[in-house]
Amino acid sequence: MNPSHDEQRIRERAYRIWESEGYPQGQEMKHWYEACEQIDAEDTGGRTSEETLDTASGGIESGVAPPMPDRQSEP
Hints:
With 75 residues, the protein is an all-alpha fold. The chain is built from 3 helices and no strands. α1 (3-20) packs across α2 (28-43). It is globular and about 30 Å long. The termini are far apart. Residues 52-62 have low confidence and may be disordered. This is DUF2934 domain-containing protein.
C-alpha cells in the first residue's frame, strides 16, 4: 500500500478513537499508536507487531517507527 494512504488511514482511525473517547486533549500520541496497532493487526491477520517482525525479519527489529502526527502549537 502507498505510504501516504497508510498515513491517511492511520490519521482517520486515530480521529475516530479520539472521538470515541470524548475528544480528550493531549492524547494525540496515544491515539496515533493505538490506531497503528489496530491497523497492523488487521493487515497481518491479527498477529501482533512482534510476531510480524519475527516472521518478516527473522527476529531482528527494524527500528522504524510510524510517522508522528503533526503537533499544533498550544495556546
